[in-house]
Amino acid sequence: MSLIIALDGPAAAGKGTLARRLAGHYRLAYLDTGALYRAVGVAVMRQGIDPAQESAAVAAAESLSPSLLNDPEIRTEAGGQAASKVAAIPAVRAALLDWQRRFAAQPPAATDGQAMAGAILDGRDIGTVVCPDAPIKLFITASMEARAQRRFKELQEKGAGAIYARVLQDMQERDARDQERAVAPLTAAPDALVIDTSAMTADEVFDQAITYIDRIL
Ligand code: C5P
């Protein structure tokens, strides 16, 4: 029996950092499902087409190239916005659902060839749609201001000349699209542990998560 951890929450709440640490701690394969939506969004943008255009987005999702998952362009703010547009299209979500479920059912081996103990997937609908039977569900959130400040700091550290008001606005737009879409909107599963990271360090979030997980295992 392999362990599945479902980790959901809005942008810049600290999901990725926590997921990587939990994957290392419990020896789990890690899938950042946001990267799939980002890759689809960027593939459509590169054709000069609006990512909200359904037929182009569905075609890109159905022929998604794994090499795009490592492309730096998917990490840009434009990539995030494009991701949330393609993510609102039900047929795009359907095309990516099988991919995510296959990963959870048969996690790839580690680079040293060792079998993994299971998988951790992070995203917006892992606990509600992709892996509703996961024994462990975490919902990582934080106030809009805390998340925008973190993203702003990250961009500044990368040397990207960011404007705080713009970062905040982008995040508000993306949250609204993710929460209001008709299919698989961002919401905590009723059986998820909700952690508000607004005033927590990454270490405190990790400690709270492993205390909870170890009680269930
Ligand atoms: O997590 P990340 O910010 O990289 O996700 C980018 C976008 O992809 C999100 O804003 C959301 O619209 C979409 N997404 C989704 N479902 C997931 C993961 C990401 O709709 N499971």
TrEMBL record:
Enzyme class: transferase
Gene Ontology MF term list: kinase activity
Positions that bind ATP: 9-17
Entry EC no(s): 2.7.4.25
Main location: cytoplasm
Catalytic activity: dCMP + ATP = dCDP + ADP; CMP + ATP = CDP + ADP
Annotated keywords: ATP-binding, Cytoplasm, Kinase, Nucleotide-binding, Transferase
Compartment annotation: Cytoplasm
Pfam families (UniProt xref): Cytidylate_kin
InterPro entries attached to this UniProt entry: Cytidylate_kin, Cytidylate_kinase_dom, P-loop_NTPase
Entry similarity comment: Belongs to the cytidylate kinase family. Type 1 subfamily.
Protein name, entry field: Cytidylate kinase
Underlying gene: cmk
